[in-house]
Model the fold of this input.
Amino acid sequence: MSSDLLDALTALEKQKGISRDVLVEAIEAALVTAYKRNFNQAQNVRVDLNLDKGTMKVYSRKDVVDEVEDDRLEISLEDARRINPAYELEDIVEEEVTPRDFGRIAAQTAKQVVTQRVREAERGLIYEEYVDREDDIVNGIVERLDARNLYVGLGKVEAVLPAGEQISTETYQPHDRIKVYITKVERTSRGPQVFVSRTHPGLLRRLFEVEVPEIYEGIVEIKSIAREAGDRSKISVHTNNEEVDPVGSCVGARGARVQSISNELNGEKIDIVEWSEDPVIFVANALSPSKVIDVQVNEEDRSTTVVVPDYQLSLAIGKRGQNARLAAKLTGWKIDIKSETDARELGIYPRAFDETQVEAEGQLDEELALNDPYFVEDEASTEFEEETIDLYSDDED
Done:
């Protein structure tokens, strides 16, 4: 048994990375419990498992005392010195008590311990692998669905995609291949539990890092993301390299890069705008593809009043207020949109942006907005109610 066990432990050490010494200690501890249980013994014992010599012995351990109260645990100094004159008080006397048929029990116990430790080690390795991949994307295969969750196979572990993290416009079937974003990894009694998402803004960020080399290399930085998963998203980008166009880098030739990401997200529309530390410019950019005439900023409550041409009010608002709502989330500023006519009636006299500045800051005119592959115009109408609309809230009409 010792030779076979030695070979097995050596193989496990190479394949699973589990130290042989750790396994031997675990087996010895389990054999102590097995000895007490199977032979109805209550004394302290120690098991010595020597795989190199092929020996296994059980030793009772007794404390050397002046007066013995429990002879299963203690031995008098006089009796101890009959065994070895060198014993002193508080020493421990060991005596071999290996049962004749202990080998069968030992083999069974060793098998159970090794199996358990291998399982624990594998779980630990899987946990360590995936806990380091939190906030990253992985490829998975849809394995099964139930009433609440979708289960995605990641190879060594099955991840949970909760209903709230699924894109409402997507349908999933077993064996479908999808990209998911790891949001959390937990250690449980049944092994590591991995939770993933298809709606998290981090998924969009990681997809751009994969698709756009300038982002991966740090030349272009994603400053903020606002996402309504499955429908539309906005991202703001920035670079300190004057020779690099951050928006163009993300769009790619003929929109190839952003289109690839949109396809991965089941056709989700993605607006890419240039970030600016000036809230006037940033808010105007964020409302693309609508043209903006004026942005007035209130620093105290981080709010802005935006004036747009009358015929572009619906475009600025977006269907069910989506464009303005996403712009507010992207910038972190409240946005109150007014048509030019309403603004003048209320005593707000907008100053028109210089056309050169508008173009330089990424403001697209209506024709460009309709033709550009990464800007998709909402179903806008030139008809609108003449009223002031606060679109920072998420309430939809």
